[in-house]
Amino acid sequence: MELITTTGALDAFCARARAFDFVTVDTEFLRETTYWPKLCLLQAATPDEAILVDPLADGLSLHPFFELLANKRIVKVFHAARQDIEIFVKLTGKVPQNIFDTQIAASVCGFGDSVSYDNLVRSVTGVELDKSSRFTDWSHRPLTEKQRLYALADVTHLRDIYIKLLEQVTAQHRWDWVEDELEILRSIDTYVVQPENAWERLKSKLSRPRDLAALRALAAWRERRAQDGDQPRSRVLKDDALIELAMQRPVTAEAFDKLRAVQRGYGRSSAAAEVIGLLKAVEALPKAELPPAIERYRGPSPKGAVGDLVRVLLKAVSEEHGVASRILATSDDIDALVLDDEADVPALRGWRRKLFGEKALAIKHGKIGLVATRKGVREIEIKD
Q: Does 3.40.50.620 match the CATH number of domain 305-381?
């Protein structure tokens, strides 16, 4: 099997690939100690050949492959594409054109929610993959024969899966379902975290305006520091530490040492000095510049009986139409629509609303009920 280590050889492959309608793509990378994923191996396959590319080889430029990714005519086929695409966005500043994610397509064709590649290979081709090389050190050279075979399998079987799913999506008239999900992958905002928006990733119950202002400022500071130092966010400060800092807002080294979520002695570090300056600025903010307090919902809990009924409905609709429940609605979507008939969630828009959302609202308002039959759960109209 060929391991490409020169720009010329890669350029020649990309020239041959342009003769086809699609190319399958996968990557191997490391990320345990960095903010940005480190690309260690690139795999690609056309209908008649498959290659491995060594991005760590001296003098090799990936520019020919980046041009292939930018070619709008050729479909770039991935499985669970988000992390692979993030790598290419980091290297090129752009999202690959004309992408297809087999995990998304599989989820709307009855293969289940977030189906793994090896399970999909088994279902479509009957082949049992050896995944023992999954967590090996892909930066180490030379690569073993076992590693190469594992890496190639990630793009060779993907060809058969793509062709099979293409047929199913077309036959079941579900292209609009797939397109909705692909739009998320096509947006560069999916991969580039702006520091000022980093607080949105945190799960906290903070509601007081000054606490929220501190959390937003701290999250932005951590994101910048992680990006600039190319280190994981948790290496800067863990989530629970950010939340405790936002609540306690220590402004001295001694106050830092009283916090449980921050290691002792951290208050005398240069990072803590930056945090103290930031928190002092938050304390000085006038009330008019603070974010609004979060209003807590005081009605029936969405985790109660109504929410439970909607979740049963979701499972029933998912099974009836052979589509993964996560594609129809998330748990957060259900909570939102139980609280608000006009909640801004995917479950209440487009094809999802027709398939599930309208029924969910009908259950909420007592217009339909659910009954168990030998064939499964079905809806019945409730008459006044």
A: no
